[in-house]
Amino acid sequence: MSTIDRYSGGSDELSAPEELPDRFQNPGLPPHRPRRGDLDPRADKTSERIVLALFGLSTLGTIGFLVAYFALPTGTDAGGIQRSTMTLGLALAFALLGIGTAAIQWAKSIMNDHERVEERHLMESSPAVREGAIANLEAGAADSGLSRRGLLKSAMIGSLALFPLTIVVPLIGNIGGNWNVSTFKHTMWKKGLRLTTDPSGRPIRAADVTIGSVVHVIPDGLDKAANPMDEKAKAIVLLIRLDPRDLHEADDRKGWSYNGIVAYSKVCTHVGCPVALYEQQTHHLLCPCHQSTFDVANGAKVVFGPAKRPLPQLPITVDSEGYLVAQSDFHEPIGPSFWERLR
Amino acid sequence: MKALAARRHDRRAPVVLLLLALLLVGGLYAALQPAPASAAPQAASANDVTNGEKLFAANCATCHGMGATGTNAAPSLVGVGAAAVDFQVGTGRMPLAMSGPQAQRKPVVFTPEQISQLAAYVASLGPGPAIPTAEQVDASKGDPANGMAIFRTNCAMCHNAVGAGGALSQGKFAPNLWSTSNTHLYEAMLTGPQSMPVFNDANITPQEKRDIIAFIRQQGGTQPGGLSLGSLGPVTEGLWAWVVGIGLLIGAAVWIGAKSS
Questions:
Q1: Rounded to whole angstroms, how far apart are CA atoms A225 and A328?
Q2: Residue B201 lies in a domain
Q3: A184-326 maps to which CATH number?
Q4: pLDDT for B4
Q5: Which residues of chain A have pLDDT under 50?
């Protein structure tokens, strides 16, 4: 243990007050206490048996794995696959854990437990080597004439500064060629476009939407759009019919609903999850991702959660055949914020 | 044939033909028309309605009022239909044992006969959704693949992708659907109990409802991947990984680092 005493610091004479030594005393290691197995041969024998048992467990695990592999074919039904997977996994766990725990138990209880200290050596090179390296660098710099040949220096700096463009330009270019953010601001909805059920695509008659109903809506003709999934991601709408007595509408939106039927964008204004957990009795609409809650009876204003804006409302009416149609596109960009959203 | 042709020129023939055509159209309509989701069930006799009224007065009227017109404590049941009664009473949700965020599934209080009597009484108060027929809820006739598509759009956000259930706000929750009977699944879609919205036959057609039931009946069984942990996704899986998995690792680390006695 004497090697450790090297670290117990000598007192520094400069500024330390008498009570606080400049370095704490290294307490060193506690005195070595013999284990039971070191004194009692029977305890030593017990430890050996434990290790033996653990290796035995591992062997049993391996045998069990092989038995399960041949005796329990996976078959084609879910139950057979589950039985096989579970048995193989458990047997494998015992096979490997047995080896690992046996090795640790062996090292802890049978091998000697005297602490050893490994010396730490300095990492730096010898002074002579370091001075030589610096001298070499200085000689090279002087030889290149960096300070005298100004044009060369500028050319070198310029080429080094330009090189990263080979990485940056493809990186930005690969984001995509379409930099037209106005596509975020408009959806497929337009005047007279019918609302249809998602995913069946049936047009919806206003008379069929009973109070308390929720219909998941896509625009008519979505499957014929150029990029149907892109259009769907923007145009999905939730159609809800409330008792008109429960519905409180802003004055400028009085004409946007039809007999208590309101349509709101299904894209959360927080980060764009589909908001669709509708509680019929409270008229609250929940977002499953971050629990933003919108009050459908009050213009879908936020009543809880991280969303900052109400869901955009789709103005709707009925056509001559009684089917629900859009009056126009949304009056504001749907979904979460993005650069230049309101510009 | 000649005689037939001769009789066709009888001047009463057009009237007879018209009557026959009307009968044919009416008969075809009656035979082919989809089951109406309203009107009092045909099987309910006046006796059922009377018995149902007695049961209602004894067990339900305290909250729903005499004549089921509703009070401050509970809504009116006029026009909710037999399907709503069969669902609420048949799953034990009603009669309500205590007020809370929502009525929960409990042991059923009434016998099937009493439930049908109650349903007959409530259905007699006003037209509403009827109890679906055995054929309408026959999962073997549904298309589970189409059911999955409909379920994913309309149901999965609350009831979880495989129908394991999920949380709503303020103590309310969407229940697990695996042990709900086919008829009750159908009735819940049709009537929209409590927080659940209504999905009438125009929104999700009877065929699509049966597809959904077929999809649900294939969920919740044996999982080929091992323990399903309730199929609740990241919540139980995370709990398992963080508490059990990391707990075991910490235990192993402590054991490896401890001195042998």
A1: 18
A2: yes
A3: 2.102.10.10
A4: 54
A5: 1-12
